[in-house]
Amino acid sequence: MTPTLYHKYPVANDSEPARGLLTLLKTHRVVLLIAFGIVVLLAMIIIVTFTCKDDSQAKQESHNSMSLLEHQLTEAREGLWQSKAQVTACNKTVASLKEEKSLLEKEKTQSQMQEEVLQGKIRILQQQLQKVSAEVKSLREEKSQGQYVEASSSSLAALSPWEVAVLLLLGLCAVWI
Q1: Mean pLDDT, to the nearest integer, of 41-48?
Q2: CA-to-CA dists, residue 124 to 129, 154, 161, angstroms
Q3: Where are the domains of the chain?
Q4: From CA 112, how far away is CA 145, in angstroms rounded?
């Protein structure tokens, strides 16, 4: 066996330019793939950056919206508490007004009963006044005729007409007081 030399000097060959062109094309392909990968990577970085910015803006908007909603909820709760307090106060007022109304109705009923009693007393006194007036009139007529009739049956015979009138007036005043 003889040793083989693997080193060959370049020889101009017709196949050599095709081979160089092929190598060049392969190298260009690799460079193009790497460039394309870099472009895709940059595009992805830009997209992610914008997405992150959009995401942070969305988070900020969401936070602002949540803060606004929490504020509105707090105001609504305060309004509800105030409304409940007003309802409680109104209910107490209504209850006290109902109590006052029932007391006034009782007083009105008592006043009406007292009025009826007083009207009955007035009627009785008017009847007594009419009887006394009739007796006084008859006594005057008897006195004017010169006839003196002893009225032992009547308690008013001993009283003068002025005394009777004063007693009747006192009786009426006592009824009104």
Answers
A1: 87
A2: 8, 18, 20
A3: 20-176
A4: 48
